[in-house]
Amino acid sequence: MTVKLTPYINLEGRTKEAIQFYEQTIGAEILFITTYGDMPNMPNTFTDELKGLVAHAKLRVGESELMFSDAPWSSPIETGKRVTICITTNEVEKSKRIFEALMQDGHVNMPFREESFSPGFGDVTDKFGVTFQVYTEM
Using a CB cutoff of 8 Å and minimum separation of 24, what contacts does 93-102 make? Predict the structure, then answer.
């Protein structure tokens, strides 16, 4: 079993621009990128512009990784949510235990469940106001 912490950056429709900037300035390498349009079961109300936004991206910078996504609907990012921490494991049950522990006296932003990009994912703000995305690698 592995557990890894990764900074997760949420932007308002500028993730592709940010990725290109980090590729040029700090030598970031794209490991994975998917748009909202690439994801199954997206609402048909999504415009082509919204479908082109980044739902999830992972970059390698040296020995480290960064993750990114665009806030759909170009909504303003709440204070404390621009940069979050992604906790990654390779076991759904371990991810679920971490999520449930962090939600004690905290706030669930997105319930822990299977997603198209992960067999177990959830978003929670703990009792100290720190937001964590708990992600299970496939």
Answer: 94/1, 94/3, 94/136, 95/120, 95/121, 95/122, 95/134, 95/135, 95/136, 96/120, 96/134, 98/3, 98/134, 99/124, 99/134, 102/126, 102/132, 102/134
pLDDT at 130: 86
Q: Which residues of 23-55 are buried (b: 16+ CB within 10 A; e: fewer)?
A: eeeeebeeeebebbeeeeebeeebeeebeebbb
* Separation of alpha carbons 27 and 33, rounded Å: 17
Q: Are 32 and 57 in contact (CB under 8 A)?
A: yes
For 58-104, the DSSP string reads EEEETTEEEEEEEPGGGPPPPTT-SEEEEEEES-HHHHHHHHHHHTT
Report the chain (138 residues): mean pLDDT per 10 consecutive residues: 89 91 93 90 77 93 91 70 90 96 94 94 90 92
Report the DSSP pairing between strands 64-70 and 54-61: antiparallel
CB 115 within 8 A of CB 34: no
